[in-house]
Amino acid sequence: MRDRIYEIIFEADTRIGRLFDLMLLVSILLSVTAVALESIAVLEARYGFWFDAAEWFFTLLFTVEYLLRLFTVGRPLKYATSFFGVVDLLAILPTYLSLLFPGTEALVVIRALRLLRVFRILKMARYVHQASMLRQAMQASATKITIFLYTVATLVIIIGTLMYLIEGSEAGFTSIPRSIYWAIVTITTVGYGDIAPLTPIGQALAAVTMILGYSVLAVPTGIITVEMSQQRRVNTRVCPECSHEGHEIDADYCHACGAALESTKVAD
Question: What domains does the chain contain, in order, with CATH numbers?
Answer without folding.
Answer: 1-126 (1.20.120), 128-230 (1.10.287.70)
